[in-house]
Amino acid sequence: MQKMKKKTGAGLAGVLLASAMLSACGGQPAAPSAEGNGSEAAKQPPQKLIWYIRYSEPANAKAVLEKANALIQSKINATLDLRYINPGDYENKMQLIMSSGEEYDLAFTSAWANNYLNNVDRGAYIPLDDLLAKYPDLQSILRKEVWNAVKVKDKTYGIPNNQIMVSQDGVWFKKDIVDKYDLNVAKIKTLDELSGVYAKVKEKESNLIPARMGSVAFGFKDYVPNVENLFSIDTNNWKVYDKTQSYVEEYRTFRDWYQKGYFPQDVGTLKDETSLIKAGKVFSRYGRQKPGGDAELKAAYGFDVVQIPTAAPIIGRSAALSTLTAISSTSKKPELAMKLIHLINTDKELINLLSFGIDGQDYTKLSANRVEKKPGAYEVPGWLLGNVFNTYLLPGQPDDVWEQTKKINETAKIDPLISFSFDRTNVENEMARLTAIEKEFQPILDNGLDDTEKTLKLRSDKMKAAGFDKVLVEVQRQLDEWRKKQ
């Protein structure tokens, strides 16, 4: 077992669905060199794999996992212990699990929850390149740019879950309210225009929350590359600067929204947003744009939505790191864990079982590749697990939704920093402090919880005292060195 390194600090690119993906459709067997001799493996008792995911335990989970394990055991002679952690608790619980050295095998990680880069830095995950080399069909699912984006110091520590690899910021609105007041949301192009819509909703529907929360994604502006969610990059002169300088007007707007009651009263601490949204109490929310997204939202929340983009589509590192599966450095079965990752990314039956549950119990099959979920039944989003291009379609999703998604993935602009990986080694103590400060101030700024100028000044003072300028110089140095090699 590889021991976790001890350090002082805290620690989606076009998708290629070519002929190699025949395995995902059941037309190509798994790589023999990777899976080994099935009859020999079957003679041994199955080994259990523990997998943590960021999701509340759904209804019928035990029955679904029992059926899934029958399939997994027949394929790779393993069983899965899928452990659900409530999204609001996932960050803290995973930190405790990793700090304690608990033995487990797989975990959901990302740029936005259970931070992938921080966890790699602290030695929480093993490098996967040697194991990944045994699965060329798995590698071929994603474009080279995506694989490069997940590398840290030229090593791969997580397998991106194959979904839309494009980040396109946007907002969804409850369609019944849009229709009721004839709100022309499709023509919104600025924050001021969005503010006007919220003002009308607040006036007409006093018990309805206009917006779930603030986000700089509401900005209706060109994409700004960033590093570590702390530094923005001016690609005209390749200079590094404090990322908050890019969003001062947005922060001021969010302060205004907060004071006018456009957010939930507990916007900064709200953990269970799903119940609030399902209850129809929220008019709009920031949401990533994608083909068929409106149908997914209706299935999740029970009502129709209208979506608008607030930015152009882009494939950046944050998108590549948005949903990953990593193998723990405490795992005693990394080869078997990789077999499971390969299986769930290439076996249609397995991912649909773990995503939608059991036919007749959790959903009704409408056609060979389309299902309708039953209310209150089992469901786990496929993007938490693996290759969503192998999952069933939902009512309302276009028949060609995966083809549309593939096209967007292949044509979207690539972030110029997609393969830039910041090495924290020289400033890891400073980065630990800066990350903690950012975690403290981001919800205040995004949700307007206090005066904007005062908050920015306080944040800046704390950042400088924690070594911000030193880290900025290091980011600039590494950026300059990286550019020389491009």
Any overview of this molecule?
The protein has 486 residues and is an alpha+beta fold. The protein folds into three domains: 19-165 and 319-414, D-Maltodextrin-Binding Protein, domain 2, CATH 3.40.190.10; 170-316, Periplasmic binding protein-like II (D-Maltodextrin-Binding Protein, domain 2, 3-Layer(aba) Sandwich); 425-484. Helices cover 40% and strands 14% of the residues. It contains 20 helices and 17 strands. It has helices at 32-35, 38-42, 61-76, 87-100, 116-121, 129-132, 136-139, 144-149, 175-180, 191-204, 248-259, 273-278, 293-301, 317-320, 334-346, 348-356, 401-411, 428-446, 452-465, 468-484; strands at 47-54, 78-85, 106-109, 151-152, 155-156, 159-160, 170-174, 226-227, 231-234, 239-242, 284-286, 305-309, 314-315, 324-327, 363-367, 370-373, 413-414. It has a five-stranded mixed sheet with strand order 2-1-3-14-6. A three-stranded antiparallel sheet has the order 11-7-12. Helix 18 packs antiparallel against helix 19 (452-465). The model is unreliable at 1-38 (pLDDT under 50).
